[in-house]
Amino acid sequence: MIHAHPYNIVRPLIQANNVSFSVNSNGSKKILLRDIGTEKMPFLINDITRPDVTNTGQTIAVVGRSGGGKSTLFRMLAGLAKPTTGQILIPKHTRDHDELDKLVEVQEGSVGFVQQNYPLSRNQSVQGMLWDAAVQGNIPRHERMGVIENYLEEWGLKDQRTQSRNQLSGGQRQRLAIMEQLLCSHHFIIFDEPFSGLDPKNVDGLKKVFNQIVTVDEINTILFSTHDLHLAVELADQIFVIGYEKDDQGNYLAGGTVIKEYDLKTMGLAWNPYGDQHQELKEEIKLLIETN
Ligand SMILES: Nc1ncnc2c1ncn2[C@@H]1O[C@H](COP(=O)(O)OP(=O)(O)OP(=O)(O)O)[C@@H](O)[C@H]1O
Ligand SMILES: [Mg+2]
Question: Is the pTM of this model over 0.85?
Answer without folding.
Answer: yes
